[in-house]
Specification:
The protein is α+β, with helices and mostly antiparallel strands. The protein has one domain. 25% of the residues lie in helices and 25% in strands. The chain is built from two helices and four strands, in the order E-H-H-E-E-E. A four-stranded antiparallel β-sheet has the order 1-4-3-2, covered by helices on one side. The chain is globular, with a radius of gyration of 12 Å. The termini are close together.
């Protein structure tokens, strides 16, 4: 099974990395971000994620079966 990775910049200038992750995962699953369960904040500290983005630190975690990488303000979401 191949793994497809999607790279995204924030959809709007005010989007945080956490919002971008939620939107990317929701889009992959055909859902609205608010419908994601558990919510992203229950899986990862979204304040820390937002603070670390763009700091030169790479953050990797699994969310709803997707492998998520946040690096230099970019979000990659790999298909499960």
């Amino acid at each position: 099974m191949s793994t497809e990775t999607r790279r995204r910049q924030g959809q709007q200038p005010e989007d945080t990395p956490a919002v971008t992750v939620a939107r990317a995962v929701a889009e992959r699953e055909g859902l609205e971000p608010a419908a994601l369960r558990p919510p992203l904040a229950a899986v990862v500290d979204t304040d820390a994620l937002n603070a670390l983005a763009g700091s030169g630190v790479t953050v990797e975690f699994s969310y709803r079966g997707h492998e998520v990488v946040v690096e230099d303000g970019r979000v990659s979401v790999a298909e499960p």
